[in-house]
Fold this sequence. Notes:
Layout (H helix, E strand, L loop, with lengths): L6 H11 L6 H20 L14 H18 L4 H16 L3 H5 L6
Helix pairs in contact: 1-3, 2-3
Amino acid sequence: MDGKITIKHLQQYIKKKDFNPKEKHNYVLKFMEESGELAKAILNKYPHAEGENIKDTIEEEFCDVLFYLCAIANLYDVDIEKWIPVKERETDKRYNTNYFNEFFKGTLK
Ligand SMILES: [Mg+2]
């Protein structure tokens, strides 16, 4: 890894750290719990993280939600990074916009 975190790297990291298909139900519950904590952080205007201090910040909750989103995607063998440009191209078509070509052109093979 070159020091930059990609969704693919994050999914690989989480798969090594926390991958248990028998716990699918609990992963979904944790995702919902963390989504609720993120909503609370947003609505209650939690502070931003500073330096290395992330405890009880909005950044902590975004990271928690992303962690469980990736953990669930791993259980279903979904490569999020692969499918984002496909999904965004479809969204562009639906809304007649051109964001896909600006940001993802050349990413689909
Ligand atoms: Mg949390």
